Every structure is written in structure tokens, then in C-alpha cells.
Amino acid sequence: MVKRQRKKYEALLWSIALPGFGQFINKKHFKGFILMVAEVLINVMSNFNLAIMLSFNWRIQETIEIIDFQWLMFYPCLYMYGLWDAYRDENRGNLGPYSYVPLACCAYTVTVGLMYSTTFEIFGILFGPVFLPILSLIPGLIVGNLIRVFLTKRAEEKGLVTE
């Protein structure tokens, strides 16, 4: 039982490290390869690693100047899909009918955070294209989970879903 509990999150945690790793853990090699290639392509073409380094050194204006937003806009959806897919596969699809909603909402809010990252300030601080999208995860998770709970309860009331 303990081994199963530990393995339950292993694919998810590896997917946080790099999209595609969780799929390899779940023996979905083709899907893992596609996600890894897409992640590396987007990462390289958008200068994302350099942007992360500059952001962590609080050089936000330089981050904004070097980032290629046209490429980076693909990253949130790829990343959130990789997380959800790895976790779903490891749990053999037993997550409920609306398990995708929180991460889909996160993909949306992180993308919106990225779009406003060059102008939106919080308390006079410009967080830039790395930190503002990360902070945008919070409302995505909150709203996504609220929507998931609402949809699940509504489906249960109509007799479409049983726990």
C-alpha cells in the first residue's frame, strides 16, 4: 500500500521537473518523447532558461527584452497538460470526470499572466514573464477547483456521476 501511495505522485513530480518525464515513468514513451521535444523546442526558442536566470537575479527588464513571447505562450498549456496526463495515467483514469478543470484553468490564468507580465505591477513591483505567471497559478487553482466542485455536484444531482 505504501509503495502504491508513493508511486501515485511519482509521475506528477517528475512532470514538474520536465514535461514528458512522468509519461516515461508511466511507460507512455511516445507521448513522453513528444512532450520532451516540444518542451525543449519552446524553451530554446523562447529563451526561457535565460529568462528564469535573469528573473531570479531580479533583472526583470532584461528578462522582458530577451524573452520571445510568441514561443513562450505555448508553454503553460504544454506544461499543465503534461502534469495532468502523467497524474491521470498513473491513477488509471480514476480521478473523476472533471479532474482536468483545475489544470486547464491554470493553463489559462498562467497564459493571461504571461500576456500582462510586461505591464502589470503588484504594489509597484513588476514581476515580469517568469514570476507573474507563477503567481497566476494561484487563482487558476482556486477557480478551477471551484468549477470542478460545481460541475461534479451538478452531474451528481442529475445522476450522471457517482462517487
TrEMBL record:
The keyword Transmembrane applies. The chain crosses the membrane at residues 32-54, 66-84, 96-116, 123-147. Keywords: Membrane, Transmembrane, Transmembrane helix. It comes from the Bacteria. This is Uncharacterized protein. It comes from Evansella alkalicola.
